[in-house]
Specification:
The chain is mainly α. The longest helix has about 35 residues. The relative contact order is 0.07. It has one domain.
Length: about 60
């Protein structure tokens, strides 16, 4: 029984690592897309608003 619990724990950690890596990659790609599609005169403002809105949506999802 202990072997099964250990295997499930290892599988859960592996799944968390994979999900974390994919989430990080997707965030990086989205940020790159936002920066490449932004008007050259205002990349800082657009990136700031994009980052703020993403963090605000994460905060509201945890409440």
């Amino acid at each position: 029984m202990a072997h099964i619990a250990a295997a499930v724990g290892v599988a859960a950690v592996g799944a968390a690592v994979v999900i974390g890596r994919l989430a990080g990659l997707s965030g990086a790609l989205c940020n790159a897309l936002v920066q490449t599609r932004t008007d050259p005169a205002s990349p800082g403002q657009v990136t700031s608003v994009s980052t703020f809105s993403a963090s605000a949506s994460r905060r509201s999802a945890t409440r």
